[in-house]
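Re: that chain you flagged

S.,

Sorry for the slow reply, it's been a week of failed gels. I finally had a moment to sit down with the sequence you sent. For the record, here it is as I used it:
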Amino acid sequence: MSSKHRSMPSLNSDKAAEDFVATADLTQYDLSGFKPMRFEIEPKAAALNMRLPASLLDAVKARAKAKGIPYTRYVRMLLETDVAQAR
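Prediction finished late last night. Pasting the structure tokens below so you have them in one place:
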């Protein structure tokens, strides 16, 4: 392994990513910027309906948009994180 790491190439499809991972030596790439990914697998069988001040909902929507996710997913992630920390 060399002391210099390459930048990750831009992969424009799942197929391109699968082909790259299947053939590349990932130890040669700088993976320090990668972040864990959460996949929404568990079915959502329950619903939550709540009233909030418009300013709070606007702030939540802005934070979710900055993260590039729907605001309902962002709220669910906040709840999951808080519950997991309490355990």
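What I noticed first: The first helix runs from residue 14 to 23.

Talk soon,
D.
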